[in-house]
């Protein structure tokens, strides 16, 4: 990448790290929350929102999950690891991180299977350098699947596990 300009390239998904695909945030301000209660997707608000929540927004649902995926991609010249946050990951998964987390609780191999489903997908991605000086991976700011028959991972998983929607 030249300078700080985003770069668009064609690539293939080589692998997806399935061990830690999401993180919890406050549902009001989206500040990152500690993942001390990983079995609950709505255990708390951040300290700031919790303090003001009762007076201004008594019906808030606590926390939610957002995607954060480490993805190995291959361009025509190299293989490298990028990070894909919620907006881009939703394109590939076809659902929210909360929905996928709940699906994976019921189907423990779903995260591994989703990675295998997405391996080999050809994508057009736009990458940008991280704004945080400590971050080590390029960010995927947009992703477009290039295969006309692309199906989001959750659709294939539902079919594979015999799960009906609705």
UniProtKB/TrEMBL annotation:
Q: Write down what this protein is called.
A: Replication factor A C-terminal domain-containing protein
Taxonomic source organism = Ilex paraguariensis (yerba mate)
Record's superkingdom?
Answer: Eukaryota
């Amino acid at each position: 990448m030249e300078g700080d300009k985003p770069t668009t390239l064609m690539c293939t998904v080589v692998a997806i790290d399935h061990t830690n695909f999401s993180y919890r945030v406050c549902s009001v301000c989206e500040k990152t929350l500690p993942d001390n209660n990983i079995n609950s997707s709505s255990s708390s608000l951040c300290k700031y929102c919790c303090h003001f929540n009762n007076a201004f927004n008594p019906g808030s649902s606590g926390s939610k999950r957002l995607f954060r995926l480490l993805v190995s991609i291959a361009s025509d010249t190299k293989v490298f690891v990028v990070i894909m946050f919620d907006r881009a990951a939703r394109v590939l998964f076809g659902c929210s991180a909360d929905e996928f987390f709940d699906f994976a609780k019921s189907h423990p191999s779903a995260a591994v299977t989703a990675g295998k489903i997405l391996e080999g997908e050809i994508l057009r991605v736009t990458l940008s350098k991280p704004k945080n000086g400590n971050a080590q991976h390029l960010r995927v700011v947009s992703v477009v699947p290039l295969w006309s028959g692309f199906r989001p991972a959750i659709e294939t998983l539902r079919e594979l596990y015999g799960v009906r929607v609705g």
